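Incident log, structure service

09:12 report received: a user says their structure output differs between two submissions of the same chain.
09:20 pulled the input from the user's history:
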Amino acid sequence: MKKKNRFVAGVVACGVLAGVSTLGLTTAASAHGWVGAEGSQLIARQAMPANAGLVGAAAYDKQSFEAPKGFPADGPVDGHLPSAGVAAFSQVDEQKADLWAKNEIQAGPVEIDWKYTAPHKTSQWRYYITKNGWDPNAPIKRSDLQRISTIKHDGSEATTNPKHFVDVPADHQGYHVIYAVWDVADTPNAFYNAIDVDIEGAAAPDTQAPSTPSGLSAHHVATTSATIRWKASTDDVGVAEYRVLRDGKVVGSVSAPEFTDTGLSAKTAYEYQVQALDAAGNVSGTSHALKVTTKALPTKDETAPTVPTGLHTMAVEPRLVTLMWTASVDDVGVDHYVVTRTKGHEVKTFPSTATMFDDTTVKPGAQYHYTVRAVDAAGNESGHGTALEVTTPKADGADDGNQVSAPRWDAFGTYAKGDVVAHDGRLFEAVQGSKGAGDPNWINAPSLWKPLS
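09:34 re-ran on a clean worker, output below:
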């Protein structure tokens, strides 16, 4: 199907942009993403150029539509799905049939590309569409939506799976809203985007199946797990996912040509095959079989885990540094990690059973170097990962020694107008009531918080 990036403009008053600037959010380096990268057939509501005069603060912060994951059981409340429940973006929740610019598409497969400003490790993407008979002049509710696609991921960064092909139902025509949900693997949150579409009618049906996966090979075979890889299939529209079979039974599906199978038995032979599927449900032939035999349990475990990688910060405050890294792999299993912190000649170590650690013993305005190593149950230690240098911000009047004159700001907290909090050595007063979604940028939003110091 030929790609299109056309859109139909709604009732847009572009001249009000200047009046919105006072609500603009401060864009930070830890921003996240939205639907509408180059090549995408669809663009999210807040990112549509023709909507710029209607979306308020979102015109300057398209990437922070973030709320707790777990949709539809959790996540944004009904009536606030397009804004993800972010108070500063509430204008995006307005719903009228002729209000928003629309992406013109045909029923059938459409390409959706996300623009990532911080490509978090990802578990999956899910896509919903409004049901036939929904009310386009009423706030969108969960009950208005039906799921049309789930794009599963392997926990790696989102940029390793940049293109998604989603099948728009053939019985849908006219104005509908597609609701995109990006589930992050390394935070408790997800990102939510509403996409307005005008469906012109069914395209020619896609009946061509993807090519058969080939070149299966085994990697990182251990006692209870194995990773298999293969050459990517091709399709006239696009491959949506791969189905992995172990001994003839489906054990998982992934969007990239790699799959790690866990929970296996030691010293046991298994046979793997792979099929490719497109968004229309066409299934390729089944690949050749790859035989994999897991390792026997060692009489004595002398193999160290792999070195932890990807050490980075999730938060840096005068008295807090939050670290995160990619899990190590071990032939038996990683027992824990050891975080080493150096400051001049001072060396401290901290144990962590997770791939995340909060260092609450740091001091304001100090420079630290961190490394992480992995340890298995037998005591075998990996080497140290690449060192990470972190400098904490200096404190000011809001943080006098160990005495903080206001409660520390919580990115997940609920606040009323007039509440005062401390963050990064400064005091802030709430401009309006809000409930945090975990985004560390909200404290810098003028529409939510006013600095007092």
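09:41 both user submissions now match this output. Likely a transient worker issue. Closing.
09:42 reviewer note: Residues 17 and 306 are 52 Å apart (CA to CA). The longest strand covers residues 102-116.
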